[in-house]
Amino acid sequence: MEMNSPLHKYINIFDDVLPDQILNGFLKYAKSLEFTPAKVVGESKQKVDETVRKTLWYSMNDINCKSLTQVHWRNFLLSFFMRYIFEYKKNFKIDENFNVIDIQILKYVNHGHYVFHVDDGYNTPRRLSMIFMLNDEYDGGDIVFKHPETNKETVIKKNKNRLIIWPSNFLYPHSVKKVTNGERYSVVAWAL
Asked: DSSP 3-state assignment of 106?
């Protein structure tokens, strides 16, 4: 992976972030969930548009959830993401505080993809974006960043147990290429 633009240094990749036993337990939990088609957030309303985003999703944000298993995994993920936000801040000597505001489990199947987009917007104010890759037994599905001036693309290859953190702003348009075989599971989160 070639990341030689000055912007690329703010894309941090952490590998082997969880012990295999915990990762496998969470992946088993994720595979048991009932996913629904993910919506695209636009200037007006949220809607499903599979030409832009063909993804299934499950929200981990229900704090009134009656499933103790979900409460456990939600709390675990909050702690996990906050720990790596701390590492990210340390890497760049950032004094600001961040709070995780949204956690979603995503499932890409049947040519699932997401076109180039940025995560921060009027309806979705976000400062840090995170993707945690749960598995790598699929084809396609790579994350691609596009330089905002040159349009040069940087592909981040799939690797299970990999966490990627970057600024959510307009300088970091990214996409998920089509999954051509298998099922891609990941957890996405944002901080404000």
From this structure: strand
